[in-house]
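Worked Example 4.2. Read the sequence first, then its structure tokens.
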Amino acid sequence: MSALHKFIFEGLPVRGMLVRLTDSWRELLARRVAEHAHAPPVQSLLGEMAAAGVLMQANIKFKGALLLQMHGDGPVKLAVVEVQPSLSFRATASVVGEVAADASLEAMLNLHGQGRCAITLDPQDRQPGQQAYQGVVPLHGDQREPLQQVSQVLEHYMLQSEQLDTRLVLAADDQVAAGLLIQRLPVQGEGNLGGLRNEDEIGLSDAFNRIAMLAATLTREELLTLEPDRILHRLFWEETLRCFEPLQPSFACTCSRDRVQAMLRGLGREESESLIAERGEVEVGCEFCGRQYRFDAVDVGEMFTPEPNQPPSSGAVQ
């Protein structure tokens, strides 16, 4: 089953997580209807983003949805992963045109240097006026050179946003999406007013640098095929690890008939009834899971029929 393993290195300011999405990743792919099936490079992109999104959500313990998005000026216009606090996740991509079998990240998303990576934290119980937090970085490094891997993009993001050294190793195929995260823990007083600044410690931790070098030796094949305990032993057999009870990520889509109805109400009565007149029914498909929602003339009429003692709906977006 899919599992996420957290661990720390005893006596060292370093923590880690290892995730393997197996049954949940295959379920997500199986839900993709044929016309939304993606070329292998796009599938790998989504799988690596899914593994990374689960790792990042588990790392910050945020009470709300984490959205990881990459959008650009290549054939992949948008790739998005959403992870809930329970570590349930979903993913989709919008592709226009052909994607070569050996397409790189740059070829898919960053043909003319306009690619971006955005991470949004959307609170579960958002208060009136409260905005979701979003951080955006370009798909290039500090030297303006294109970043060639999803892991490099996210390392760059976390270095800028959290100002903590991070090493990521990601891999995905049509069976498994997996990732390893190693991160330096803040030292005492770091990041506090009057104390050390996070950036003052970047790159200076010998313990993190040594463990990150070990993590970098992990191959794609090993990450996709070996069990977590074998991976950790192979990489860190000389270290003392404290491992915690595994968590279980799962595939789950948050779409529902009620949410689609709310979207149609936002379109307004006139627009919704014109769709009925043109097609006989309104059909809306979820891009994440492929589920189809159908509404006939009676359904649409009921949507805009006010409840007793309620004023009529104008159809305007609220």
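Now turn to a second chain, presented in exactly the same format:
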Amino acid sequence: MKGNASTRPTIPFIPHHISAEVSVALFVVGGIFYLAGMAPHGLGEPANPLVTPPHIKPEWYFLWAFQLLRMLPKLLGILLPGAIFGLLFLVPWLERREERHPARRPLAVGMMTGSFLLLVILTVMGLN
């Protein structure tokens, strides 16, 4: 005979389940500490934050920013992307026309098209 959910014995969550989870977590953390103490992995040479290794390449979605940093002086390469995205953020307030059709909003469409082309060109340049 199948029993109802109300007739089955229940186990309280707080003392039983929590103690099992805490004991497993302590065992895993203890194992990690043991391995770190008994078989430490040696570190390489100290990092130099002013020199980028020549073999480092960013992921494809950051290639445009990497290429911009290679082409421009450091400060300009850092500030220009922020200015571009800030300008794109301000497009709705710069173009205040009531018209919604893209053909009648040349400033907004031009800014978005120019930004997209700049990102594509810099990404393709960064692939090389």
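Notes for the reader: The helical segments are 13-38, 63-71, 74-89, 91-94, 106-127. The two ends are 72 Å apart (CA to CA).
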